[in-house]
Amino acid sequence: MVNSKGELVIYGTTGSHNFPVTANAYDTVFNGGGKANLSRGIDVNYQFGSDIIISKLSADGSQLLSSTYFGGDQNDGLNLYLAYNYADQMRGEVVLDKNDDIYIATCTYSAGLATSASFQNTLQGIQDGLIAKFSADLSGLTWASYLGGGSREAVYSIVLDKNENLIVAGGTMSSDLPTTTGVVFPTYQGAPADGFIAKISNDGALLNALTYFGTSKYDQVYFVKSDNFDNIFVYGQSASMDGTLVKNALYSSVNSGMFVSKLSNDLKSITWSTTFGSGDGRINLSPTAFMVDLCSKVYLTGWGSSNDGFEDIPNFLVDPSGNTGHNGGRGTDGLPVTPDAFQTTTDGNDFYIMVLEDDASALSYGSFFGGRFDKKGKIYQSMCAGCGKHSDMPIFPANAVSPTNNSNNCNNGVFKMDFLLSNVVADFKASSACPSQEIQFNNTSLIQQNTSYYWDFGDGSSSTLFEPSHAFQSAGTYQVKLVLTDPGACNVKDSVVKAVKIFSYSSFLNATSDTSILLKGNSTLLHVLPKDLSVVWTPSLTLNDDTLFNPLASPTTTTTYTVSLKTDSKNSCVGSDTVTIYVYEPKCGKNDVYVPNIFTPNGDGKNDVMLVRGNNITDLYFAIYDRWGELVFETKDQSIGWKGEYKTQSADPAVFAYYLKVKCAGGDEYFEKGNITVMR
Predict the structure, then answer these.
(1) Cβ pair 256, 327 in contact under 8 A
(2) Which of 439, 539, 456 lies closest to 495, judged by CA?
(3) In terms of C-beta density within 10 A (0-12 exposed, 13-18 middle, 19 or more buried), how is residue 194 classed?
(4) What is the mean pLDDT of residues 249-270?
C-alpha cells in the first residue's frame, strides 16, 4: 500500500527476533509465541512463534522510515484454523486513511493487545480477528480491537468507506458473534465455517454492524471493497452450490463455488449476489485480488491449481465431492473466458481474471493470467511462475528485464495489464516550492477522448490546461483541486484534492538534533524538515550518511553541521540551516569532583544534606568517619548523601574526616581525602 507521499507501507508476519525496526517504533521487541508448523503449501516453520510487522519505506526504496513489531505472548498474524487455500495462514491486509494513518486486519492468539475503549477489548476464543490503527510514523498505537466469538475467527480484508468507517471481512467458526439488528444474516448459517462482514467506527469504539454471510455449508469471505456510493462488495468461496447465494443477478454459474455479492452500507440488504466457476461442483480458486472501479464494475482474480499446495486440507474443510483438497483436482480448468481473453486456455494451474458488470448482468471479461488492481482499471501482479524450471510465462516487451526463468524451479513473475476503461480518474503530481517559484503540475489522470480539465489552485487562481504551471506568491499550504469532466465516460466526472506546500525562505529548512550536548564518543541523530527534499549535510566525516534527512552524527569535537539542498534537488529554493553539537570530554579531577567542607543539617531546608558533586561520575565510594576513626556514613550512590546523623541520632557539631573514590565517564579515576565541619 502506498501513502500520499509515495511511501510504501508493508504488512506481514515474522518469526525473527532481529527484524529491522526503528528507534521510535511502537514495539521494538519480538514477543513470539509457540512453535507453528506451516509446512503445508508454503513450507514455513516458526520455531519461536510469530509477531505482526508493519514497515514503511521511502518512495525511492532507499530508506526504512519506520518499522514496528506488534504482538503478545502467543502467535500473532497467523491463521491456523481457517486455512482452506494455499497461504491462507498468512492472509491479512493494510489500508491507509487520508492522513496516512495505518490500519491492519489480521488474526491473533494473544490476549492483552486491544485498547480499553475498543468495541471488543478481550480475547474471546482460541483464534480471534484483530483490527488496529497506528499513527502514520508507526510510533503509536491509536487503538486495537479483537473481533471474535467463542471459537475461531480470521479477518482477511479491510477497507474504509467515505466516512472512514472500517469495513472488515473474513471467516468464522463461532455461532456467537455479536451481530446487529436487521442485518442480512443475524445468525450462524452452518458448520464448518461462515463468512462475516463488519462495520466499525473509525475510533474503534463502536461495532456499527455485523452480519454472518454464508450458507449451511462451508463459506468464507476473502475480500471486501466499497464503491463511490458506499455500497459493500464481497468476494469469497462457498461449498453450497445450489443457488443459495444467487440473487437479482442475470449472470451466474450453477454448481460453482465462488461468489461475489453487493450489499448496502448498513449490511441490512443484498442488492445482488452471484456465483461463478467451472460448474462441476468444485471451488476453483484461491482469491488473490478484488476491486470495484469508479463505475462499480467488479474485478477479481484467483489462483487455481490441480495439485500443488492443496494435498492436506484439514478434515473440517472439504469440498462437496468429499475430497480433501482445494478444488478436487481440476484447478482453473473449465472457468469461463470471453472472446477478447488474453489467454483462452489453461493447464489447470493458472491465475484467472474476471470482470463483472456493475449489476451482475453479464461477464464482461474472463481470461487466464491474473493480478492486483487499481481504480484506473489496471492489474499489477507479482506471482510464482515457471515452476519446474520452465520459461513459459508470456513476456512483453521482448527486452523485459528478465525474459527467462533463471532458477532451478519457480521464479518470481510480474506483469501489468490495462483494461482501457471508459472512465475518468483525476490525479496529479506537484512538488513543494518557495514563493514566486513556478511549479509544473504533472497530470497523471486517466482520461478519455473528450476530457476537459479545471484546476483550482486554492489561491484564487485557476486553469483549464492539461498540465499548467503556477507560482504561489505567499508561503503556506494550498489545497489544489483538479476536476475532470467527460460526457462519454461512465462516471462523467472525477476530482482530486492534494496539498501543495510553499515554504518561506527564512524557514525553508529547519535543522534540529536529539541533543545539543554530547559526551565524546557518543552519537546523536540530526533531523531536517521538510523530509521530501534532496539534501546534503556538511561536514560529512562524522556522519553515517550525509544525504539522509536524519543522519547519525558522532562528532569528536564541538561541530556545527550545515544542511542545504543538493544541487540536483527537484526544488530550486535557496536555503540552508545549521545545528551545533557541543562535545565535552569527561574529566575526573579536583576541579570536576567537589565535596563541601561545611554543612548545616539543622532542618531549615538549606544545606541539610552532604552530597558529592560532579556530572561525569559513573562509580563512587564515599565514607565519613568521626575523630575516633569510627565509620558514621558510607554510600555508593551519588544521589544519597549524609544528613549529619549517626545511628539515627544527630551528630554533634565537630570536624569529620571523609574518604572519596570515584570513576568518571571515559574510565579515569580520582581519589581524595578531606575534612567536613558539621555546624548546627
Answers:
(1) no
(2) 456
(3) buried
(4) 96
Burial class (CB in 10 A: 0-12, 13-18, 19+), 469: exposed
Nearest to 183 by CA among 170, 198, 194: 198
Bond preceding residue 192 cis, omega within 30 of 0: yes
Query: Range with the lowest mean pLDDT among 109-118, 263-272, 287-296?
Result: 287-296
What is the C-alpha separation between 611 and 338, in angstroms, rounded? 88
**C-alpha cell belonging to residue 372:** 492486483
Q: Do residues 465 and 453 lie in contact, with contact meaning Cβ atoms separated by under 8 Å?
A: yes
What is the amino acid identity at position 294? L
Q: SS in 3 state form for 443-490?
A: ECCECCCCCEEEEECCCCCEECCCCCEEECCCCEEEEEEEEEECCCCC
Q: Reduce the DSSP state of residue 560 to 3 states and report it.
A: strand
Rounded distance between C-alpha atoms, residue 223 and residue 505, angstroms: 48
Give the span between the Cα atoms of 25 and 67, in whole angstroms: 6
Full-model pTM: 0.68
Give the span between the Cα atoms of 291 and 662, in whole angstroms.
69
At 429, the amino acid letter reads K
How far apart are the C-alpha atoms of 312 and 186, rounded to whole Å? 33
Whether 317 has a pLDDT exceeding 50, the answer reads no
DSSP-assigned letter for residue 24: T
CB atoms within 10 A of CB 532: 16
Mean pLDDT over each residue of the chain, to the nearest integer: 87
For β-strands 258-263 and 232-238, DSSP reports them as: antiparallel
Distance CA(357)–CA(364), nearest Å, equals: 6
List 170's β-bridge partners, or say none: 155, 196
E runs forming strands in 173-296: 194-200, 207-213, 219-226, 232-238, 258-263, 270-276, 286-292
Quick one: pLDDT at residue 312?
A: 42
No. of H helices and E strands in the chain? 0, 46
